[in-house]
Amino acid sequence: MPELGMDFADRAASTLHSQTFLVANAVSKRFGAVQALSDVSLEVRPGEIVGLAGENGSGKSTLAKVLTGLIRPDSGEISIDGQSVTFSNPGQALELGIAGVTQEVSVVPLLSVAENILLTRKRRFSSMYTQSQLARDAQPLLDRVGLTCNPRAQFASLRPGEYVLVEIAKSLARNPRLLLMDEVTTRIGGRDADRVFEIILQLQSDGVSIVYITHRLEEILRLCDRTVVLRDGRLVGEISRADASGETISRMMVGRDASPYQRPAIAETGTQRLELHKVLVPDIVGSVSFNVRPGEAVGLCGLVGSGRTEILETIAGLRKAEGGEILVSGFAVKPGSLTTARRMGISFVPEDRHKQGLMMESPIRLNFSLGRWRTLRFVSRVQETALARLYAHKFNMRLIEFERKVSTLSGGNQQKVMIGRALSSSPKVLLLDEPTRGVDVGARGEVFEMIKELLEGGIAIVLASSDMVELRALSHTIIVLHDRQVVGALTAEEATEERLAFMMSGGI
Ligand SMILES: Nc1ncnc2c1ncn2[C@@H]1O[C@H](COP(=O)(O)OP(=O)(O)OP(=O)(O)O)[C@@H](O)[C@H]1O
Ligand SMILES: [Mg+2]
């Protein structure tokens, strides 16, 4: 495993003349007190897939934003084909052949698929482009990413798993020579993710370079020719495909091996903590019935859009069941009432941290303790800060100023705030929707350990995840959904990856 020392910048500079497409040399960027990038150098050759790994907050998205013109670096140089360049907006980066798919969604649901792909903000207001022209021009891009929908269809009518494909098509509209992809598969899974991998490999064979950011180590192993690792805004190393393994990458990222998770045994008490009796969940075919014992974790397995989230939201009181009964420790929960559900000890970590999760413009401190607020009514600022500090420490979130807005945290660190908040409310029932989305391997281990402690303390967990490895590791029982219908329930032992994949895609 080659270590990159001081000579990395020199090496990057000396290869300038060779076949390199892009060279970033000693790029730095600071946000207030946080040095997000320090002297980061990177080179990308044509047709190369370069992985970019690192813990939450290590600077990956910041580097991607610098390279796509979304933010300006404080210092450093970027050159393309040996020519020094500067760009101060994404349009200029696109001119030079650099496009990006960002970590957060950038499409407009009410516009058509074609409009989303082809129109920039400026062109959206010009009436020169007719709908039929738009549809015609979008078609080859849809073909390229393998989307068979009508280009005139409203974007919102697509399956959620297809959204990312539209974003990729959008970024290909200007024929980039380098495409930066920031955690594009965290929002999808299964065959949709496979589709993304196929597109990437096709782009590579067309000579397009890819910079691929992910926390899923298996994706790095599958795709990347080499992987560079950031830690605290510095480039700490590079791993070639030949040297890459889950262990080498995670060790370089977090400085230690990920510990294996051991599911705790369920205490035999004979009582149920959570019961769903023939619950009619809006938008789900048939009724949903299952029980969760104290100390048991039930996993909901299905493709994005299969109905997992709807079931969790109904238990959480965000949706109103149209029939049936939900009980916590034997007491019926009033349907469709978030407040009652909370009061009865149901805590929910939603999938979408922007819409339902965090108060983005409020301090980190306050966001951490919202769960507790609800149960205790009054929590002092000192207590809030202590709580935030506890979780920030557990989850290894460095450089925390608790009065900063939550929106300034990196994606994965925002996720940790949501998890910390749910855990701190001392729940009886914990509902987790894609809990470790975008969370780095080190912190994921911490989240798993905390889940284990909670289970040993007798709470019931229902979780949904697109990450099959995670779902199988955590769940005692797995309920499989296909096309908005429950199609089966398996014990952890029965739930092999093949069997789940088969059932999820409609096999019996
Ligand atoms: N607009 C901003 N204002 C203040 N700080 C910021 C801003 N954007 C990023 N940061 C900080 O810069 C650091 C790097 O963030 P970045 O988003 O690049 O991390 P990341 O490696 O992409 O993490 P993740 O894996 O969680 O997505 C973090 O400490 C983050 O809080
Ligand atoms: Mg990021």
List the helices and strands and how they pair.
Blueprint: H1 8-14, E1 22-31, E2 34-44, E3 49-54, H2 60-67, E4 75-80, E5 83-85, H3 90-95, E6 98-101, H4 113-118, H5 131-145, H6 160-172, E7 178-182, H7 190-205, E8 209-213, H8 217-223, E9 226-231, E10 234-240, H9 246-254, E11 274-279, E12 288-292, E13 297-301, H10 308-315, E14 325-328, E15 331-332, H11 338-343, E16 346-349, H12 353-357, H13 364-376, H14 381-394, H15 411-423, E17 429-433, H16 441-456, E18 460-464, H17 468-474, E19 477-481, E20 486-491, H18 497-504
Parallel strand pairs: 3-8, 3-9, 6-7, 7-8, 13-18, 13-19, 16-17, 17-18
Antiparallel strand pairs: 1-2, 1-4, 4-5, 9-10, 11-12, 11-14, 14-15, 19-20
Helix pairs in contact: 5-6, 6-7, 13-14, 13-15
Bound molecules: adenosine-5'-triphosphate (ATP) and magnesium ion (MG).
Strand share of the residues?
A: 15-25%
**Based on the structure given, which CATH architecture of the largest domain is correct?**
3-Layer(aba) Sandwich
| Small molecules (ligands, ions, cofactors) in the structure | adenosine-5'-triphosphate, magnesium ion
Count of the domains: 3
Number of helices: 18
CATH class of the largest domain: Alpha Beta
Main sheet? Answer: 6 strands, mixed
* Mean pLDDT across all amino acids: 86
| Molecular shape | globular
Looking at CATH, which topology of the largest domain would you report? Rossmann fold
> Helix/strand/pairing class, anyone?
alpha/beta
Number of beta-strand segments: 20
What is the CA-CA span between the terminal residues? 46 Å
Sequence stretches where pLDDT stays below 50 over 5 or more residues: 1-17
Task: Give the fraction of residues assigned to helices.
Answer: 25-40%
Radius of gyration: 23 Å
- The CATH homologous superfamily name of the largest domain equals P-loop containing nucleotide triphosphate hydrolases
Q: Enumerate the strands of the largest sheet in spatial order, edge to edge or round the barrel.
A: 6-7-8-3-9-10
